[in-house]
Amino acid sequence: MRSLLLLFLAGTLQLSAGDHTVLHKKAVVADTHNDVLLRAMRGEDLSVRTTEGHSDVVRLKEGGVDVQIFSVWCGSEFGAGRAYRRAVEMIDTLKSLASRSPGMMMTPTYGSVQKALKQERIAALIGVEGGHMIEDSLAYLEDLAARGMNYMTLTWNNSTSWATSAADETEKGDSLAFKGLTEFGRTVVRRMNQLGVMVDLSHTGERTFWDALAVTTKPVIVSHSSVHAICPSRRNLKDDQIKAVAKNNGVICINFYSGFIDSNYHRRVSQIRTEHGMLIDSITAANSDHWKNELAIDSALAPFYRAAQPSLSQLVDHIDYVAKLVGPEYVGIGSDFDGVESLPKDMDDVTFLPNITRELLKRGYSERDVRNILGENVLRVMKANMRP
Fold this sequence. Notes:
By secondary structure, the chain is of the alpha/beta class. It has 17 helices and 9 strands.
C-alpha cells in the first residue's frame, strides 16, 4: 500500500512540474524593470540572441515575457542640460530596437498593450528611473510623457530639488534641507496623474513615499523593490508601506537583486572583494570611471560571487510575504535584469522566469493567484493610469 501511495505522489508531482510551463505560457508575464537599454546604448544589438547580460528580445520571448517596462536611466552625474537629453536618447534607442524586432512593439497606451498581447508580441513600455531627468521642468515631464513614458521613478539614489531619495534620507538624515516632496514635487505627482504616467515609488525615501501617496489620485507602482522585514535594505518596503500600497490599489514588484533578497549577501560579497583586493586595485588603477570600474570588477569576480547567491526559494519568499500580508492582488515582478551583478540561483537570466511559476504552484498558489502575480496585477495598475 505504501509503495502505491508513493507512486501516486510521484505521478502528482510530475504532473505539477509539467503544468507550470503550460501556465507560464498562458499567463500574461509583466516585468516592470529591466536595464538592458544600457547595453544597447553601448552598441549591442539586442534584437538578436546575445551571450552577455540577462536579456535580449529573443530571450525575453523564451522567458515568456509579454509586457516589459524598459528602464531609462542615467546617474546623478548627468546634471542640468544632460539628463533630459539622455532620457530622450534612450527612448529613441528603445523605439529603434522595437522597429527592428518583429516580436515586439511600442505600447504607449493601454489599448496598444492589449493589441500587442493579442498579436503575441512583447509590449514594450518606458520607465524613466529618476525624476532628475525632467530637470525641474514640467515641460520636460510633459514631453517625456508625449514620447511614451509610462512611469517615472520620483527619485533614483540621488534626490532632486523636489523629492528626497531613500539613499539620502538614510545617509544624510537631518542634514538634508528638506525631506519628502516639496510643493513642486506634489505638482509633479498631480501632473503625472493627469498625463497617464504611473507614479513609481521605488528608490524614494520614506517621507517622499508617504507624501506621494497622500497626493496621488491613481494607484502607484513600486517597480523594483523587495521586503524590508526579510532583508532590511533601505530599498525595500516596510510592512506599513506594503499595506499602504495595497490600500492605494497599487502593486509592489519584487526586485531579484541578491542584495535585496538576502541580508547576508553583502557581507559575503565584502569578504570576496577583500580576498581579491589586488585584482580590484589593478582594475581601478587603470580607469578613473567609477561605473566602468564596478562593471569590470563585477565581471572579474562573477565566478566567486556565485557562492554568495541566495536561493530561488528566498526570492519567492518575498512574493509570498507580500501576498500573505495584503493579498496576492498587490504583488508582481520587477526583475532588475541587466541592472544588477547578482541574481538568485536558478534565475540566471530571463529564460529562467518559469521557475517562479513552478515555485508558486509548489507553494499551493492557485492558477488565478499565479496569473495575478505574474502580470495581471500590473495590468490593472496600468489600466487605471495609462491613456486608453
